[in-house]
Design goal:
Shape: globular
Pathway: Plant hormone biosynthesis; gibberellin biosynthesis; Hormone biosynthesis
Family: Belongs to the iron/ascorbate-dependent oxidoreductase family. GA2OX subfamily.
Structural class: alpha+beta
InterPro entries: DIOX_N, IPNS-like_FE2OG_OXY, IPNS-like_sf, Iron_ascorbate_oxido_reductase, Oxoglu/Fe-dep_dioxygenase_dom
Distance between the termini: 57 Å
Mean pLDDT: 90
EC number: 1.14.11.13
Radius of gyration: 20 Å
Keywords: Dioxygenase, Iron, Metal-binding, Oxidoreductase
Length: 338
């Protein structure tokens, strides 16, 4: 791919980026129709069992989805020196191979953006000039749609768990000061795997959990996303370009006092197919206090808080100072007294 780091025959991919064994496509991902009456109970069960599920009948037109994917591919096909005008990612902007400031790398290039159109315009205009209006329009339409999906899922989840008010989580995402972010990822084919006849994959994005409340992900029809099951094994998620995938984040794990657990996941690339993903990370305002809700604490039943309270700003700062694979919540856990 033009502009992305490509090793020569003499350069080897680090063994840390090549897993020993690739899982087969996993058939156990819950699929939930957003509009069926039992959606709320199905969402609760999926979040409890896996922290991850596929969402159908979401109401977002395929035209809006395809338009943003097309615009993203146009951007990633530009020469590297031009794309770099939208970077470096600090934290927002264009990034290539390096993920964050702590030494994590992957076979990836990406755009990390805010949900503020003006801020995104400042990043993209130097690269695209007047053509930035097209991708801006596609971004605004798409982000508006997936924000609504995130809020609808969170309200159904609250209702299914008998939490009042129903908008206890969605109001954080709809708040004008919400710190939600948006990410476009491009995982190009890895030519060294083809040359070496390795037949496997390399790490595109290393294993991690998302710090936010929930994430809303959509990708093209290329496999690569894997989730870690509760028994510690990795499962490859069958791609579905018409649906969205929802995963629980660290903040929701804390606010449910561990009843829901964030989904650990990673992305693998291969030598033949390109993968594009688009993720909305729903987050509270920076000043929001993250703590278990009272309904998840019952001292009479010896159900104590498992986490200290902290602001989203504090947790975000702590999370982004750690490696991807780290247990970011460990710093905030409380060992229950006997």
């Amino acid at each position: 791919m033009v502009g992305l780091y490509i090793p020569t025959k003499q350069s080897n991919i680090p063994m840390s980026l090549i897993p020993a064994k690739q899982p087969h496509l996993f058939s156990g991902i819950p699929t939930i129709d957003l509009k069926v009456p039992e959606a709320k109970s199905l969402i609760v069960k999926a979040c409890e069992d896996l922290g991850f599920f596929k969402l159908t009948n979401h109401g977002v037109p395929m035209e809006a989805i395809s338009e943003l994917e097309s615009q993203a591919l146009d951007f990633f096909s530009l020469p590297l020196n031009l794309k770099q005008k939208a970077g470096p990612p600090n934290p927002f902007g264009y990034g290539n191979k390096h993920i964050g400031p702590n030494g994590d790398v992957g076979w990836i290039e990406y755009l990390l953006l805010t949900t503020n159109p003006d801020c995104n315009s400042l990043r993209l205009s130097p690269v695209l000039d007047s053509n930035s209006e097209k991708i801006q329009h596609a971004l605004n339409n798409y982000i508006s749609s997936v924000r609504k999906i995130a809020c609808e899922v969170l309200e159904l989840l609250a209702e299914g768990m008998n939490i009042l008010p129903r908008n206890v989580w969605s109001k954080m995402v709809m708040n004008e000061q919400s710190d939600s972010i948006f990410r476009l990822n491009h995982y190009p084919p890895c030519p060294e795997l083809v040359r070496s006849n390795n037949g496997g994959n390399v790490v595109g994005f290393g294993e991690h959990t998302d710090p936010q409340i929930i994430s809303v992900l959509r990708s093209n029809n290329t496999s690569g996303l894997q989730i870690c099951l509760r028994d510690g094994t990795w499962a490859s998620v069958p791609p579905d370009q018409t649906s969205f995938f929802i995963n629980v984040g660290d903040s929701l794990q804390v606010m449910t006092n561990g009843r829901l657990k964030s989904a650990r996941h990673r992305v693998m690339t291969n030598g033949l197919k390109s993968r594009v993903s688009m993720i909305f990370f729903s987050a509270p305002p920076l000043s929001e206090i993250i703590a278990p809700l009272p309904s998840f604490i019952n001292k009479q039943a010896n159900q104590q808080s498992l986490y200290t309270q902290f602001s989203w700003f504090e947790y975000k700062k702590s999370a982004y100072a750690s490696r991807l694979s780290g247990n970011r919540l460990a710093h905030f856990q409380i060992i229950p007294s006997p």
